[in-house]
Amino acid sequence: MGTLTIRLPDDKHSRLKHLAESRGISVNKLMEELSTIALSEFDTYNRFQVMAARGDRQIGLSLLDKLDAGPLSGGGDGLGEGKTDDRT
């Protein structure tokens, strides 16, 4: 496991400490969780960029047009007229 030393303004450090305390975890654990979120967002963004670079703009726009014209475009529940959701 690596060690990371960061310099933060005192007020930011204090706020992070209070946030960690409110969650019942250490500041170290909070930073681990926040870094996991940041890396996950970064990975998702990169995957999207790769997929977008491989994709066809016109096909993507055509799919969005189909979604706009679909059963949900009328503001309904997506079940259609007279149909009920029997998953209750």
Walk me through what this model shows:
It is built from three helices and no strands. It has a domain at 10-69. The mean pLDDT is 86. It starts with 9 loop residues before the first helix and ends in a 19-residue tail after the last helix. With 88 residues, it is an all-alpha fold. The chain has helices spanning 10-23, 27-54, 57-69.
What are the SSEs and their pairings?
Layout: H1 10-23, H2 27-54, H3 57-69
- Summed over residues and divided by their number, the pLDDT gives a mean of 86
Following the backbone from N to C, one meets helices and strands in this order, namely HHH
**How much is the radius of gyration in Å?**
23 Å
- Tell me the strand percentage band: under 5%
Helix content: 55-70%
Q: What can be said about the biggest beta sheet?
A: none
The tally of beta strands, per DSSP, is 0
Low-confidence stretches: none
What structural class do helix, strand and pairing data support? Answer: mainly alpha
